[in-house]
Amino acid sequence: MNVSVCTISFRHGLQSIEHIAQWATGQGFDGIELWGNHARHLKPHAHVNGEWLESYGLTVSMLSDYLPLHDERAKNHFAAKNVLQLADRWNALKVRVFAGELGSEMIRKEERLHLVNQLRDVCKMAAEKNKLILVEIHPRTLCDTVSSTLQLLSEVDHPSLRVNFDVLHAWESGANLDEAFVQLQPFVEHLHLKNVVDRGHLHVFHPENVFNASASRQGMTSLFTGQIDYHQFLSNHDFSSFHASLEWFGHHPFAVLKEDKQKLVAYQKQTLYH
């Protein structure tokens, strides 16, 4: 498994991209998942780009951003053009987006059709640049369930549209994790790995909580100590050729991510020789 660290983990701390790159290399990460907001703030620094990051032995495995898919076509087209340019700068093949801001049970038929058309336009733009658009399994989006995600993939019907399989959010949807992964595997290009102590704390991952610097982080926990049994999930499938990101939103990101990376490597070595 190719493993990346997410720069969004450092959204509330003052850390330079140089420091993150040096640290990630030292911990044996293969790449970084670059948050779109960070990529935009780095634009004035012309020398900081994909080639620069490769000098650390790292790549941008995915550029994670958001698109105004509910808005008019011109606004969405402009945003997509900009994020694809950022992906070019960082030599990133994949751009992660959310499938709107309404859950599959909340969205009206005409709103869903509008979003599908918007996504198809973005996928056409991405294909021209040899990029992939990844929709993430996430609550309060059209990818809040496996069935709605599969429906969306069918509706958009474009080879550039793929899936970022967020393990926690797939579990949150009530799906059987193994069955969900098997169903979506033909479309999965990336995984997000994180955990929670129990279902009662899932609200800590709501965007309004994650992006509030003073909000509670109670319930977030390291990868192998939470409610999701990653030992079992990782054992049930062959992830050797997959790319994944350790996604940590809590306190002390350097310490937690270092420990999770070490445990993940140890677990992979253990399974390799048994």
Describe the structure.
- The chain is an alpha/beta fold.
- The protein has one domain (2-272): TIM Barrel, CATH 3.20.20.
- Helix content is 41%, strand content 16%.
- The chain has helices at residues 17-26, 36-41, 50-54, 73-89, 109-128, 146-156, 167-172, 177-184, 207-210, 230-235, 253-272; strands at 2-6, 31-35, 59-64, 94-97, 132-136, 161-166, 188-193, 195-196, 220-221, 243-246.
- The strands form two sheets. An eight-stranded parallel barrel has the order 1-2-3-4-5-6-7-10, surrounded by four helices. It has a two-stranded antiparallel sheet with strand order 8-9.
- Helix 4 (73-89) runs parallel beside helix 5.
- The longest helix is centred in the middle third of the chain and has 20 residues, at 109-128.
- It is globular.
- The model has no long low-confidence stretch (mean pLDDT 96).
